[in-house]
Design a protein that fits this description.
about 95% helix; mainly alpha; single chain; about 35 residues
Length: about 35
């Protein structure tokens, strides 16, 4: 299970920046919608 955990942690490291970009994009579009 340790190997699987390492792979999952590596995936999370790859996913976090992508999720942050998506969240920023939603915030920007959300702010535009409110204006």
């Amino acid at each position: 299970w340790k190997e699987r955990t390492k792979r999952e942690l590596a995936l999370m490291k790859d996913l976090i920046p992508i999720l942050k970009k998506q969240a920023e994009g939603r915030e920007i579009s959300g702010l535009k919608a409110y204006e």
